[in-house]
Each structure stands twice: as structure tokens, then as C-alpha cells.
Amino acid sequence: MIATKNVQSFIGGKFRDSRARKVDPIPNPATGETIASLPHSTREEINEAVAAAKQAFPAWSETPVPERAQVMFRFKALFDKHIDELSAIVTQENGKTLDESKGEVKRAIEVIDFACGAPTLMMGQNLDQVAKGIDEELTRFPVGVVAGITPFNFPNMVPMWMIPVAIVTGNTFVMKPSQLTPLSAMRIAELLEAAGLPEGVFNVVHGANDAVNQLLTHPDISAISFVGSATVAAYIYATAAANGKRVQALGGAKNHILVMDDADLELSAPHVISSAFGNAGQRCLAGSVAVGVGKIGDALVRELAKDAAKLKVGPGTDPKTTLGPVIRGERKTKLIEYIDGAQAEGAQLVSDGREVDQKEGFFLGPTIFDRVTPNMKIWKDELFGPVLSVVRAADIDEALKVLNASTYGNMASIFTGSGKYAREFKRRAQAGMLGVNIGVAAPMAFLPFTGWKNSFFGDLHATGQDSIRFYTRHKVVTTRWL
What we know:
The protein is of the alpha/beta class. It has helices at 43-62, 65-81, 83-94, 98-115, 118-121, 157-168, 183-194, 209-217, 230-242, 265-277, 297-309, 329-345, 377-380, 396-405, 419-428, 464-470, and strands at 9-11, 14-16, 23-27, 34-39, 125-131, 134-142, 145-149, 172-176, 202-204, 223-227, 246-250, 255-259, 287-293, 348-351, 367-370, 387-393, 408-409, 411-415, 433-436, 452-453, 456-458, 472-480. The chain is built from 16 helices and 22 strands. The strands form six sheets. The chain has a seven-stranded mixed beta sheet with strand order 14-15-16-13-12-18-19, with helices on both faces. The chain is globular and about 75 Å long.
């Protein structure tokens, strides 16, 4: 575990104490105890990080692709070796259970593994004799200095959506991790350094709005990757694009899970519960709305309430815990406001998580509402916490109408034994990631993370071939030898 009082930055291959005056305490969400202090990087320090990345770019971009891939192979081996330590850091600063943290780190390793295939992924295309005596070829080149702005909820996995692919394709990188969970970012920097990454190729700075705005407008940054709320994603996209940068901005979600009246509840309900309450509901693939279709509504609510009651709320370090804390006390307060508001709007409270037997930390128990309707705030907004809404629908047409009415389109799932229902769902559901009898429809690293609507702003998504295209630019060469 990192033992540090002040979180450092990583600039030009050196770990540095910041000269900043603004400092945030970093609490352990399970105890409220301060585990570190985070200085917000100064404007000068951020400029130094970008300058270091810019200086490192020419040599790194000219490094042969197989050599860059070898760095990723070593980086992956280090992630494998330190998986328990990396998981413990996530649990300490984020609060999720150790099992959830280890699952996150494993998903991070998947992306590093994908990036190790750079010699194949970077291949272009060619066509001999496009016209008499003329050949054409397409080749890929890195875009330059790129920046990644990452969220608190997956401090290992989400940065790995960006860093390995950006670096292995020849770019240099400036990371601004969430100011709520900065410790994982510093361990990532240590492991990249140990893997032999040259100085300046990867840099870490800290801060909040001011740091983000500086990166969005910096003339030496060519591309921005972001994951966070829909409101901020829209702002990131508009601001960075207005400053001439390519942008991928992943926003929020309101993921619906349709439970058809032919579904096996004993099998499907635990998956809905895991989707809704895993990582304390703090993930953009959380199933936050369960739609009971047909006559299954009452039985679905009973089964969900029964399974939710089995969850054990507590610190993530306790092996028996299945639901950890939310990230901060103010986040808990906001969620309680939503719960109070939903009751006032007429939603029926089935499971109340406001009173939990935890004297310390930022805990909220599993909360389930029934009879939620699309005109309620609890249905419209992304809550990002352990709150599940149940909506009733007469048939699949009404269920899809509810799902598609959301301004978000990240993920949706259906539980059914009917191929007809599944096919209708796959064709008509307006979301980029779909699951059939799957609670969390998360693509593997070699496929893109394809949010729709206000869940994504940009053209090329994170991970998969989209990420290779995002972090490279093309040249098409037409050749005639006289």
C-alpha cells in the first residue's frame, strides 16, 4: 500500500512534490479517515507536464512498434504480479470490496493485453495497381500529446482504456486522474517507469476544474479522452473540439434491464441485484431501472427485495462485505435527497437503505423503489449509487418505449427465454451495449465501449479498434515509379 502524506505528481520521468497551495484531504470512504493529501497541480506544473510529453514525442513516435509493444508486455507482467496490491489501493481510496477491486484490475489487464498486439493493430492497408503503374497504401501515425481525464469509480480500469493504447500507438500522455482517487494513478506511473517507459512519455498531474480547462485548451495537446458524467462530457466535447482537438467523451447512463414474464426469476433476479448494487451502484453500466414486463411485476419486486436483503453492507476489506460505501459523504447526502424526493413523487419504497448499521464511513444500503414512472426525477437522472427503480410495462413494446425515452443510451439488458423477445430487443433498444440474460453487458477490451445518446460524445469510442483509430491518424500514399 502506498504510504504517503502528500500525493506527488509525475512529470518528465520524475516524482515531484507540488508547489500548490490548494490541497484536498483524501479519505477512506469506509472510515472517513484521511489517508493522503492531494495538492492540486499549479498551472506551471501542468504546462511542464505537457512540455515533457511534447519533448518525448519525437523519439517515442519513432520507436519501432514491436519495441513499444515490449514495454506493454513488461507493464502487463507487472500488473499481474501486483494485482493484490493494486486491488488493495482501489479498495482503500474508492471503497469497493476487494473482490470488486480485483475484478477491476483484471479488466485493466485485458486492455494492456490488447495493446500488446500493436504490431498487428497498427497495420495499415495497401492495394497494388489501383491504376496502371500506380499503388496505394494507408499507414497509421500517432497524433501527438494526448490527455486522459479519468473518474473515481474505476481508478485502474478506465485509465487503462486510454494509457496502453495511446502509448503503444506512439503518443505521449498526460493523465489527470479524479481528485477523489489519485493513489492508483501514482502506482500506475511507478509500474510504467519500472516497465522501462522513457521519461516524459507518461505524466500525471492533479486537480479539478482549472486543471481540466487548462488541458482542454492547451495548444500542444492533440486529443482528449474523458470518462465522467454526461453534463461534464458534453462540456469536455464542446470545449476541446472548439480548440481543435479530437475528443472521446464518455458520459453518464440510466441503464434499463427488461425482465420478461417468461424469465426465470431465481436466475435473473440475482443478476439484476448484482448489476444495480455492484460497486455500490457507482458505475456507468449499473442496471438502475428494472422493467417488469407483463404479469411478472409483483413477483419481480418480491424477489429483488429478498435478494437485496441478503447483501452485507460494510468496509470493502471485510471478506463478507458485498456492498461497500459510496465515495463521499456529500454523495450519500445527495442520494438520500433523491430517495426522499422519489417518495414525495409517489414511488413506493420497497427496500430502504438510508439506515445502515455503520457508524463510520459513507454507507448507504440497497434501496429499491416500485411503481416508478418516467415523469419522476428518480427515473430521469443518473443517481450513481445503490438505488434501483422498478417500472411496470404491459408488454415488450411498452417496455422498449420506456427504455428508449431515456436521454441516455449506454447499456440495456433483457432477461427472457424467448428468442423472439431477444431479437426484438436487440434490434429496437436504443443503447450501444446490449445484454441478453446478462446483468452487466461490458464488452471485452478488443471491442469498443459503445455508448449512445448522452452517454457518449464523439465519433470513436474507447477500447477495441475504435481506440486504435482514435489515437492514430492516417496517411494514404499514392505511388508511381517512372
